[in-house]
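Final report, results section. Input specification for complex C-07:
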Amino acid sequence: MKTKDKILKEALRLFNERGLSQVGVREIARSLDISVGNLSYHFPKKEDLIMELLSQIRMANDARYEEYFEGRASLGRFLGTFRQIMENQYRYRGVFLGHDEINQVIKKHFDYLSIEEKRRKFFHRIYTDLAKAGELKLAEGDIEFLISFITLFGRFWMMEASISFTDKSKEEIIDHYMGLLKKQLGLFV
Amino acid sequence: MKTKDKILKEALRLFNERGLSQVGVREIARSLDISVGNLSYHFPKKEDLIMELLSQIRMANDARYEEYFEGRASLGRFLGTFRQIMENQYRYRGVFLGHDEINQVIKKHFDYLSIEEKRRKFFHRIYTDLAKAGELKLAEGDIEFLISFITLFGRFWMMEASISFTDKSKEEIIDHYMGLLKKQLGLFV
DNA sequence: GTCTATACAAGGATAGAC
DNA sequence: GTCTATCCTTGTATAGAC
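Structure output:
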């Protein structure tokens, strides 16, 4: 195996273990028993290393989608493809995962699991009340689904906006995401 | 205004401008014409500063929810409350926003808007085909909704999992999120 | 092409004087 | 409460050996 490939492999292993921002080039080099300069020769910047890993993910995902398009359109096949994509994302989780500054702080200072628990109970109460008041028609499992939706949604809408809607105003962005939430809840009215 | 409050205010302003990881303590200090040591006196670690901002958000959000619970349960009131929460999150966007290492790299090296565009067209094709094949029943606006759902979902499920399901296995996690996707699409079968 | 050694800048953190 | 000086780590760059 070439040094370049060894570096990519070990870097991904370390990133998956502790996250992108927590693993420095020195550590990758040390872990492989090579010098920093050597690593710099193959990947002048840490960025270049990350770019290479991102390209690997992209290629793997594209291949899965191409396979899908070669067959007939079916919900089952689509769900199967999407699961493969998710498996692939998981394989490279260290590249994406929330090991940035803010997540470090939250995990260190808050008991996040109990906050999360509280958060879910909270929405459970809100939706149960809405169902009792006849504002929502909820069957078995619907509440859990809506809770999962809104926790993910409420946490990440702004991150997505910062990526996808760089040119939009605050009002436009919030209107867009409020529209999604309304539509989602509207399915249960 | 006390130095401590001035620091918090200026830090948030700078974070909103360029993101948490791009603003150092030296810059915050310089911007206020105080010394780094002085800043360190009020907030020994950058973490402490972030924690304080996070607490402010939490308190503001909690207040909104308490107001909601004081009134009667209605969809309209809930949506109104949620919008206020979103406005509040936006006010503190710099604390959360994707200015971590990976986002920097992506924004620098990829034409992200056109990739995003392609991604949406892609899912548009998939869902249109599924509708034509009779696998999904989609009315006006449903496709756009499902696309928005799956782009946000596909990008952030793993981040949420790393926060909420730290004790679960890969299979359990993927099963959970696949369940969400199935349920969502099942609403249009 | 492959690697080592070394230097430099920037950022977080802290000790000690006033 | 505020400041100066200093330390350590991390990303980055490069001269030069083999």
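Chain B has a mean pLDDT of 94. Residues 24-26, 36-37, 40, 44-46 of chain B lie near DNA strand C (CB under 10 Å from a C1'). This concludes the modelling results for the funded period.
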